[in-house]
Amino acid sequence: MSAQIIDGKAFAATVREKVAGHVARLKEENGITPGLAVVLVGEDPASQVYVRSKGKQTVEVGMNSYEHKLDADTSEADLLALVDQLNNDPSVHGILVQLPLPGHLDEDLVINSIAPEKDVDGFHISNVGLLGTGQKSMVPCTPLGSLMMLRDHHGSLSGMDAVVIGRSNIVGKPMAQLLLGDSCTVTIAHSRTKDLPDVVRRADIVVAAVGRPEMVQGDWIKEGATVIDVGINRIERDGKNVLVGDVDFASTSQRAGAITPVPGGVGPMTIACLLANTVTACCRANGLAEPEGLTA
Ligand code: NAD
Questions:
Q1: CB-hemisphere CA count at 13 Å for 89?
Q2: Residue 70 and residue 240: Cα distance in Å, rounded?
Q3: What's the pTM?
Q4: 290: CA distance to ligand 1 center in Å?
Q5: What is 141-267's CATH number, 3.40.50.720, 3.40.50.300, 3.40.50.40, 2.60.120.340?
Q6: pLDDT for 230-263, tens place per residue?
Q7: Rounded distance from Cα 222 to ligand 1 centre (Å)
Q8: Is the CB of 170 under 6 A from ligand 1?
Q9: d(CA 41, CA 68)
Q10: Active-site residue numbers?
């Protein structure tokens, strides 16, 4: 059996189209332009690429993009003052502080200083609590994108066995909460899990968010299962730098019913969901109806 490829690139384009349509309506009918502020501290090359890409896509869907680039030695007080200024700026509906922050800055403190309703990354403790209790929240972008693809592929996820490999705050845990919210039976596996292949073999849905290149093997996968590969790993192969996931695509695609590729799977959905969260935040801030199909 050869798995159906879940095309995240194409799916992300449809999400961006929906966002752009909603932004156009907000401008025309309400005179409001959603705005996303991205704060980058320091010169981490990967973060610079992400921030550029986020800014470009924000403008492409018709929203305002505000980029704040601060020196690597910026003090915590100055960063908190900028976040406070953005919290109080009515033209800013979404705030994202690019992680990781330089070591002298307390990431939890900074993230929790963002107004929860503008926290489009969904990392603020209030949003974590709201998601965990099934209330309306800002949902972290990568798990939200993964959920959208799963819903699109399966319709209802109710009653399915899901295994999430990885328990990070930005992917594994919120992913598990979202699957639970959609009535899956959820197992969270991690670095101390015993017999990981056996745990994964039970799953109708496998979400791999580990950060270990091609760790998940085809013979761990139940015939016909859906595999969402969140991993992004740069490795050298045959003298070239290539991007691979946490799943061994060659063997897994022989057993899975459907699989997201790397690149072109979860990756493009993450920024699309950031834009979706920004337009949702803008609607909520203005007491307007939220766009359908862009939130959990
Ligand atoms: P993390 O390092 O914070 O967490 C990794 C998790 O994997 C941990 O909970 C750990 O317990 C678990 N783990 C490690 N080794 C394991 C093993 N041998 N067996 C089972 N579990 C193991 O990573 P993260 O931030 O959650 O990211 C995970 C991956 O997803 C990375 O490759 C990252 O680059 C990628 N990622 C992609 C996107 C995207 O947009 N597609 C977004 C965020 C992260």
A1: 18
A2: 33
A3: 0.97
A4: 31
A5: 3.40.50.720
A6: 999 999 999 999 999 999 999 999 999 999 999 9
A7: 22
A8: yes
A9: 8
A10: 54, 98, 121
